[in-house]
């Protein structure tokens, strides 16, 4: 029962990780630049994401521009697009597989099949967490390095936006969920190896008794 409750807790974490992963991929505020002029009316906030760049004015106007050209983008943005999409796909696969392999569901067949499915789903979550952690770390490194570069003007410097923090948190949820699923299946298999079934000892015992009986017949 405790193992089933732990799997259900990991499944809830994985759901939060999947939703956060998709949200971080689509949000345009991976890096933010607030440019406040001499007048509050001229204050604007520039946001850049993986797929679009948006500008928000203090007057309430909001405009976005899609990034159509892929080759014109920096390498870290191209890599972030690819890895974040892979993270979303793997986490979605993990949700489907662990739904079949969880102990609290009646899908997946016998216990061994559910255990294998649960382990495969945990591996998908771990890979999704790694693929989500790589772009957020690389993106944050580029933002910090540009911010500390003295040759770059202040108007061109940015700070990490909310999408980066959501990506970090989602990757952590997916990694924790994957470790819980894999560990629960591993403990079960390890227990079966340490404490084998007693049925395997019965044939040898019966064979020894039969051998003794045959020897008495010869005597």
Whole-number radius of gyration? Answer: 28 Å
Please list the strands of the largest sheet in the order they lie side by side. 4-3-2-1-5
CATH class of the domain at 4-29 and 70-190: Mainly Alpha
What name does CATH use for the topology of the domain at 4-29 and 70-190? Butyryl-CoA Dehydrogenase, subunit A, domain 3
What is the N-to-C order of secondary-structure elements (H for helix, E for strand)? Answer: HEEEEHHEHH
| Count of helical stretches | 5
Q: How does CATH name the architecture of the domain at 4-29 and 70-190?
A: Up-down Bundle
Mean pLDDT across every amino acid position? 81
Offer a quick outline of the entry.
The protein is α+β, with helices and mostly antiparallel strands and 219 residues long. It is built from five helices and five strands, in the order αββββααβαα. The chain has a domain of 147 residues: Butyryl-CoA Dehydrogenase, subunit A, domain 3 (Up-down Bundle), CATH 1.20.140.
How is the secondary structure organized here?
Elements: H1 2-26, E1 31-35, E2 44-48, E3 52-57, E4 62-66, H2 75-101, H3 111-148, E5 159-160, H4 162-194, H5 202-218
Antiparallel strand pairs: 1-2, 1-5, 2-3, 3-4
Task: Provide an overview of this structure.
- This protein is α+β, with helices and mostly antiparallel strands and 219 residues long.
- It has a domain at 4-29 and 70-190: Butyryl-CoA Dehydrogenase, subunit A, domain 3, CATH 1.20.140.150.
- It is built from five helices and five strands.
- The protein has helices at residues 2-26, 75-101, 111-148, 162-194, 202-218; strands at 31-35, 44-48, 52-57, 62-66, 159-160.
- It has a five-stranded antiparallel β-sheet with strand order 4-3-2-1-5.
- A hairpin with a 3-residue loop joins strand 2 and strand 3 (52-57).
- Helix 3 (111-148) packs antiparallel against helix 4.
- It is elongated, with a radius of gyration of 28 Å.
- Mean pLDDT is 81; it is low at 188-202, 204-209 and 215-219.
């Amino acid at each position: 029962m405790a193992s089933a409750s732990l799997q259900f807790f990991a499944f809830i974490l994985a759901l939060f990780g999947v939703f956060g992963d998709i949200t971080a991929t689509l949000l345009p505020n991976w890096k933010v630049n607030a440019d406040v002029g001499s007048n509050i009316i001229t204050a604007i906030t520039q946001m850049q994401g993986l797929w679009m760049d948006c500008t928000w004015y203090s007057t309430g106007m909001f405009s976005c521009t899609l990034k159509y050209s892929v080759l014109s983008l920096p390498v870290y943005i191209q890599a972030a697009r690819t890895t974040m999409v892979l993270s979303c796909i793997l986490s979605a696969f993990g949700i489907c597989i662990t739904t079949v392999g969880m102990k609290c569901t009646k899908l997946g067949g016998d216990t061994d099949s559910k255990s294998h499915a649960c382990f495969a789903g945990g591996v998908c979550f771990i890979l999704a967490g790694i693929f989500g952690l790589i772009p957020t770390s690389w993106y944050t490194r580029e933002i910090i390095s540009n911010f500390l570069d003295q040759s770059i003007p202040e108007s061109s410097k940015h700070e990490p936006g909310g999408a980066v923090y959501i990506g970090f948190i989602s990757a952590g949820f997916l990694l924790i969920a994957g470790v819980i699923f894999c560990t629960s299946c591993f403990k079960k298999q390890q227990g079966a190896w340490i404490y084998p079934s007693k049925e395997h000892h019965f044939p040898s015992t019966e064979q020894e008794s039969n051998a003794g009986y045959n020897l008495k017949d010869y005597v």
